[in-house]
Amino acid sequence: MRAVRFHEHGGPDVLRVDEIDKPEISAHEILVEVAGAGVNPVDTYIREGATQPFTLPMIPGIDVGGTVAAVGDGVSGFDIGDPVYGTGIGKNHYGGYAEYVTVPDDRLVQLPEGVDPMVAGAAGVVSGTAWRALIDHGNLQAADTCLIHGGSGGVGHAAVQIAAASGANVITTAAPTYHDALTDLGADVVLDYGRSDLADAVRDAAGGGVDVILDHRLHEYLQFDADVANVGCRVLGIGENETGVGFERSSATRRKDLQLTMMTMFNTPDLRVPLRKLAYLMSEGDLEISIAETYGLEDAAKAQQHVIEESFLGKVVIVP
Ligand SMILES: NC(=O)c1ccc[n+]([C@@H]2O[C@H](COP(=O)([O-])OP(=O)(O)OC[C@H]3O[C@@H](n4cnc5c(N)ncnc54)[C@H](OP(=O)(O)O)[C@@H]3O)[C@@H](O)[C@H]2O)c1
To answer: What's phi and psi for 6, nearest 5 deg?
Structure first.
């Protein structure tokens, strides 16, 4: 089969397509014929060497969607031909940028009828992270006011939809070109993240303050989050562009009884739990993963550059 691999860490040019044997499944694995493998920023961090994969040469790709091609002896509940999607590979296990991938049965679920496996292959990391942040850690409730920074991003556009499906009042930020699309995805208010009065605009839109905040740029927004927070606000920190972040006015922040959770999707105790719930939302039309661009295996480097360097709504996907 054809698979994208990197034999050493480095820039996008270390990615190449190799012809290798189709992988063998072990007892608790499922062989998936890949229809789509979402491209995530973390794929580039692993490629660069910030996070060590379990082996080199490595096949990248945390996400996968496709069709069951073989089932391990110890696996139940999957049959050949079933449409499936999963996440959590590509780090301590070979990833999804390939024609076939074996997936441990604790991170793969069935797809309901009507959900495209290629599209679902782009859903895992972004919607799993948004679910884990807003629902599991943030305890988002109907009628809470929720702020999602960067609603046009992969995580952002999934988070907007999950928050809207939860019955929250959803405020998000994005470049103006994406405002109409984010309204269509369920945002109640969309604000340009470039405006100088953003904190006032968020407080106005919230009618005071915000109950839950999803922040992927803590280096820029951590103090901002505290400034727009209601007392008891839950801030979910999923990313930052600097190695250390902190509050500029910590004593004022303390008056908010702020709860800050620094989290990673990889700590999810059982990935099948959010994956099944997200599959349900996809089947009901409450979660639509927007596909900005697809790339073949031979263009994996371009796909990763697209994710890091360009502006787009939703997801970039490798389609073998
Ligand atoms: N902790 C975890 O488990 C976890 C999981 C997934 C992702 N992450 C991290 O979360 C971050 C986002 O991931 P992603 O997959 O959603 O990436 P993405 O698709 O590239 O989205 C990033 C978004 O940030 C927006 N943005 C840029 N500047 C901004 C600003 N000043 N204010 C608000 N938004 C701004 C971008 O908008 P423009 O297009 O307008 O530039 C883009 O929509 C990454 O750092 C990733 O590593 C963490």
So the answer is: -115, 135
Does domain 126-266 bear CATH number 3.40.1580.10?
Answer: no
Domain boundaries, the chain: 2-123+289-318, 126-266
What is the Cα 39 distance to its own chain's centre? Answer: 10
- The 3-state secondary structure of 130-197, one letter per residue: HHHHHHHHCCCCCCCEEEECCCCCHHHHHHHHHHHHCCCEEEEEECHHHHHHHHHCCCCEEEECCCCC
How far apart, in whole angstroms, are the C-alpha atoms of residue 128 and residue 88? 10
Residues 90-130: tens digit of each pLDDT: 999 999 999 999 999 999 999 999 999 999 999 999 999 99
Mean pLDDT of all residues in 175-196: 98
**Can you tell me whether residue 85 is helix, strand or coil?**
strand
Cβ atoms < 10 Å from Cβ of 35: 22
Q: Is 5 in the pocket of ligand 1 (CB under 6 A)?
A: no
For residue 175, the CA-to-ligand 1 centroid distance in Å is 13
Ligand 1 near 202 CB (within 6 A): no
For the beta carbon of residue 218, count every other beta carbon within 10 angstroms.
23
Nearest to 272 by CA among 88, 10, 91: 88
Tell whether domain 2-123+289-318 is in CATH 1.20.1250.20. Answer: no
| Closest Cα to atom 5 of ligand 1 | 129
- Contact criterion met (CB below 8 Å) for 193 and 169: no
* Average pLDDT for 26-44: 98
Q: Is 265 in the pocket of ligand 1 (CB under 6 A)?
A: yes
- Ligand 1 atom closest to the Cα of residue 315 is 19
